[in-house]
Write a structure and sequence with these properties.
single chain, 294 residues, mainly alpha, MetI-like fold, 79% helix, 0% strand
Length: 294
């Protein structure tokens, strides 16, 4: 038997459809307004930064020619036709690349240790003194706000050329970055173990050791490994200001237009970072997996 729809039901459905169409129209209007605001802000930013697309279009050929020149030897042949000539300085470059890796390693280790110590004093759930938290947070902000290349310039002026300024610059910037990340991890822990140790007379350090660290140590290690990847790239750039490592040789090659040397050094850097990224990624997943199985 056919069923008929009552007029009241039809009117209610029509009202719902109308309300839905109205909400969709409002959402579309909001989206369009947001897009207009975005375009206006983008245009103002381009005007303030003096962005000139036509200049980019006119000179894009220079960029592509330079990229092509990186893969051409002085003899005019492609670099892959003579790998021995292309990587003629492999021994010296490998030694300098090792210096860069050691700079990144030592700088990351020092920065992670300093960030590890300072992070606990900037956590709201562990430190009740507003002044102490504020001072610690401002110190960490200073460390991660100042670019590491600026720190390197300062330390080069103080200690001279070499890897020491690079290590100190990486350590300073890593302290600020790691301290912030570590503090965020600590502020999201379960406070019940901390309260339990405090209730039986445990000191503040004992609360950190037996209630906080077991919850955060895998995340701390994961962040430190991730930072090491970043610092390897940073250490390569710090050589531009005389902080040692492969960056100094790369800068000389760029300034003297040794195009094939530039490409060879860049390939070594990229390959090294890719291997480090792969290894640290596997290690991070292992640590996180171990933590989830506890």
């Amino acid at each position: 038997m056919a069923q008929t729809i009552k007029p009241a039901q039809t009117a209610a459905m029509a009202a719902l459809v109308s309300a839905y169409a109205s909400e969709v129209a409002k959402r579309r209007l909001t989206t369009m307004f947001g897009m207009v605001v975005l375009v206006i802000c983008l245009a103002l930013a381009a005007w303030a930064a003096e962005v000139k697309p036509w200049v980019f279009y006119d000179h894009i050929g220079n960029f592509t020619r330079y990229i092509k020149g990186l893969f051409i030897l002085d003899s005019g042949a492609w670099v892959w036709t003579s790998p021995r000539e292309w990587f003629w300085g492999l021994g010296r470059w490998s030694s300098q690349l090792l210096d860069t890796l050691l700079m990144a390693y030592v700088g990351t280790l020092l920065g992670a240790l300093c960030g590890f110590v300072l992070c606990f004093f900037s956590c709201r759930n562990l430190v009740h003194s507003v002044w102490l938290r504020t001072v610690m947070r401002r110190l960490l902000e200073f460390g991660r706000t100042v670019p590491d290349i600026v720190f390197a310039l300062i330390f080069v002026g103080a200690f001279g050329l070499g890897p020491v300024p690079g290590v100190l610059a990486i350590a300073m910037h890593t302290t600020g970055a790691m301290g912030k990340l570590f503090a965020e991890v600590v502020e999201n822990i379960d406070m019940k173990p901390v309260e339990g140790i405090a209730s039986v007379g445990g000191t503040w350090l004992q609360q950190i050791r037996f209630a906080v660290l077991p919850q955060v140590q895998s995340n701390f290690a994961s962040y430190a490994l991730l930072r090491f990847e970043i610092n390897v790239r940073s250490a390569g750039v710090l050589g531009f200001v005389g902080a040692g490592g492969i960056g100094t040789t790369l800068l000389v090659a760029i300034r003297k237009f040794y195009a094939s040397d530039v490409s060879a050094i860049l390939i070594m850097l990229v390959a090294t970072v890719m291997l480090i990224d792969y290894g640290t990624e596997k290690l991070r997943y292992y640590l996180i997996g171990q933590e989830s199985r506890r």
